[in-house]
Design goal:
Layout lengths: L1 H30 L4 H25 L8 H48 L8 H54 L1
Helix pairs in contact: 1-2, 1-3, 2-4, 3-4
Length: 179
C-alpha cells in the first residue's frame, strides 16, 4: 500500500507539472508587452519556472516502480502528453527569446539616440528618458538570461522525457517477457 501511494504521489506531481506548464505557458504571450510594473512579476515567474524545470528533470530520473501493465499504459500516456506540452513550451520560449532579443536591440538603439541629444538646462526629460531606457535594458537583459536558462532546461526536460519513454518501453518489454 505504501508503494502504491508513493507511486500515486509521483503521478500527481507529474499532473501538477502538466497543469503548471499549461497555465504558465500563456504568460509568455502577455509578458512580451509588459511595461516596467509587470516586469518584476514576469522575472519572478521565469525564476519559478527555472526551479520547476530543475525539479521535474530530477523527477524523471527516478527509477520506474510500475507493477502492472495498466500502470504502464497510464504512465506512457502521461509522459507523452507532457512531452507534447514541453515541445510547445520550447517553441514558445524560442519565440519569446527572439522577441526579447529584438526588443534589446531596439532599446539599445533608442538609448544611443537619447545619449546623442544635446542637454539643455531646462530640459530634464532627456536624462530621465535615458535612465528609463537603461532600466528597461537591464530588465530585458535579465529576462533574456532567464529565458535562455529556461529554454536550456526545457530542452533537458524534453531529453529526459524521451529517455523516460525508452525506459518505460524497456520495462514493458521485460514485463511482457516475464508473463
Amino acid at each position: 500500500l505504501a508503494k502504491k501511494s508513493a507511486s500515486l504521489g509521483r503521478m500527481s506531481i507529474s499532473w501538477k507539472s502538466i497543469i503548471f506548464l499549461f497555465f504558465y505557458s500563456s504568460l509568455y504571450a502577455v509578458a512580451g508587452s509588459a511595461p516596467l510594473k509587470n516586469s518584476a512579476t514576469f522575472i519572478e515567474y521565469l525564476t519559478q519556472e527555472k526551479a520547476h524545470l530543475i525539479d521535474v528533470i530530477q523527477e524523471t530520473k527516478q527509477p520506474i516502480t510500475l507493477k502492472k501493465e495498466k500502470e504502464y499504459t497510464a504512465k506512457m500516456k502521461q509522459v507523452s502528453l507532457i512531452l507534447t506540452m514541453i515541445e510547445v513550451k520550447i517553441k514558445s520560449l524560442e519565440s519569446f527569446l527572439e522577441h526579447e532579443n529584438k526588443e534589446q536591440n531596439n532599446l539599445s538603439q533608442r538609448l544611443k539616440l537619447l545619449q546623442q541629444l544635446p542637454i539643455i538646462k531646462e530640459d530634464t526629460t532627456v536624462p530621465e528618458r535615458v535612465a528609463k531606457v537603461e532600466s528597461l535594458l537591464l530588465i530585458n537583459k535579465q529576462t533574456i538570461q532567464l529565458t535562455t536558462e529556461s529554454l536550456a532546461l526545457a530542452n533537458d526536460y524534453q531529453s529526459a522525457l524521451i529517455e523516460e519513454i525508452k525506459n518505460l518501453e524497456i520495462w514493458h518489454s521485460t514485463f511482457v517477457l516475464e508473463q
